[in-house]
Amino acid sequence: MTDALKQFILSHRREDGFIEGRLSSSAVSTAVACVALDLFGGHGDVADAGRAWLLEHRNADGLYGDSPESPPNLTATFLAYAALRGTHADAVREAEEYLKKTFGGLDFASVRAGLLKEYGKDLTFSVPLLALATASGFFSDAADAWRRMPNFPFEAVLLPESLFKYLNLPVVSYAIPALICVGLAQLKHRPNKLRALAVKKALRVLVGKQPEDGGFLEAAPLTGFCVICLCAAGLHDHPAARRAVNFLTETQRADGSWPIDRDLRLWTTSLALDVLAPLLNAEEKALYRTRLLAAQTKTVHPFTRSAPGGWAWTTYSGGVPDADDTSAALIALHTLGKEASEAVCRGIEWLLNLQNSDGGIPTFCKGWGKLPFDRSCPDISAHAYKAFSLYENELPPALKRRVVRAKKRIVRYLQRVQRPDGSFVPLWFGDQTNPSKEAPEYGSAVVLSHLDGADLPFLEKTRAYLRSVRGADGMWKNICVSARCAAALNLDGAFLKPFAAHPEALPAEPIGLYFAHLWYSEELYAPIFLAKAVNA
């Protein structure tokens, strides 16, 4: 690792020791927060600052992408227009014309058809978008719009959560708060006495899933959608709405914007430690082991009802344990010299218990499987494979046997989902310049890196694929992807050293995917990936 990379990454250590970059500001988050605060009332100055940021961060064509570096897209432009149309109509004429052309009109039927086409069977984002537009006065007949949008069965949350995977719910597992709040708003505008009997219990479920700071998943979009729909349901004064608004006001940035999530500090710390650990002294390693172990969940998580033992992406209370962050934390602990302690065994068991029947590993919940962000995916499955492999020979016999079986199942899963050209498509990373939005180069590099050293013939095809899509200049799609590919192929990273020499000047590269194809960049991704590549 170059000294410049080392110092740049270490310069992002916080007082509590966690290594945190900066998520890009988000037009989606900012627009949703502005609408939520407008509807709740009493925070006009905060919303005005958000709108000022939106006005300053239009693309050259007057449209919006998810991050300032992103090309324009339908969702970001639609939300920004909804947030600005009432106060800055002249400034969003281009956005209005773009939306009219894309939807074929701005009436409810046209917008509904366009959003459902954009997101398909997964209603996690399309219906909250319709609810936001309706609640903010976008449509001339709001009562008709509430009646005609797809129904969210909020009363389903009264059933045991173990049954959710069988209910064919229209949202992904981590969007249950939106299911409740949108459903309550719909009920307000299309009353049903039988469904009304479930309101109080559904609100108790919502409160039970809300973290201490009020932010669902620590995310402004999900939290903002909940505020909007609680207001539309006539529940402005409900404690869940007030806590959610407090989260929004407290997490606004000084420039008026909101990021897609509060931070990824636990995730970036784990990734950074995987490359920094050899450079730390014994005392520093011990401190980081303590910090990571302290961040492991110790109780059943209220949001997903997952058992203790996993790790989330952040240390804030709204973080939810997931397979990718749990694997990263376990790998970082091993790099720091942590043996298979009781805490490590709990983490291994947590991952084992998440494995789906197809052999793959999903993100949050086992068995949902019907919608994109609940399915097994190759990048996370390979990540778990590496965590299992590092500790396999240190585990108690019974746990070791489970790990051996799980690894074989992961390999069979990866063979099944490998594309004919040898590539793998990741879930939480993508390519916003690709019409399909998929990033097979990145996904293939992740799978190769995590299965490095395994004697698996089908991976030769993956290596051949990565070599075949390398550009004439030696690069792949961008710096982040090039660094991951170079490390996966064990290439001499000399061609990347010019980028590594000045990490402070690295461009923002939105390769991260949040739910529903929302793009973001993270300041530390490129430096960490480069550090891995130049050491390969």
Structural description of this entry:
- Helix content is 51%, strand content 2%.
- The protein is mostly helical.
- The chain folds into two domains: 3-22 and 262-534, Glycosyltransferase (Alpha/alpha barrel); 26-259, Alpha/alpha barrel (Glycosyltransferase).
- The protein has a two-stranded antiparallel ribbon with strand order 1-2. Strands 3-4 form a two-stranded antiparallel ribbon.
- It is built from 24 helices and four strands.
- The radius of gyration is 23 Å and the shape is globular.
- The longest helix has 21 residues, at 397-417.
- It has helices at residues 3-10, 27-40, 44-56, 74-84, 93-103, 108-119, 126-135, 142-148, 176-189, 193-196, 199-209, 220-232, 239-251, 265-276, 282-294, 323-335, 342-354, 378-391, 397-417, 440-450, 458-468, 479-488, 497-500, 525-534, and strands spanning 25-26, 258-259, 512-514, 518-520.
- The model has no long low-confidence stretch (mean pLDDT 94).
How is the largest sheet built, in terms of strand order? 1-2
Bulk shape: globular
Structural class: mainly alpha
Number of helices: 24
CATH fold annotation of the largest domain: Glycosyltransferase
Number of strands: 4
Tally the structural domains: 2
Largest pleated sheet: 2 strands, antiparallel
CATH class of the largest domain: Mainly Alpha
Poorly predicted regions are none
Named CATH architecture of the largest domain: Alpha/alpha barrel
Strand content: under 5%
- H/E element sequence: HEHHHHHHHHHHHHEHHHHHHHHHHEEH
Helix content: 40-55%
Summed over residues and divided by their number, the pLDDT gives a mean of 94
- End-to-end separation in angstroms reads 9 Å
Report the radius of gyration as a whole number of Å.
23 Å
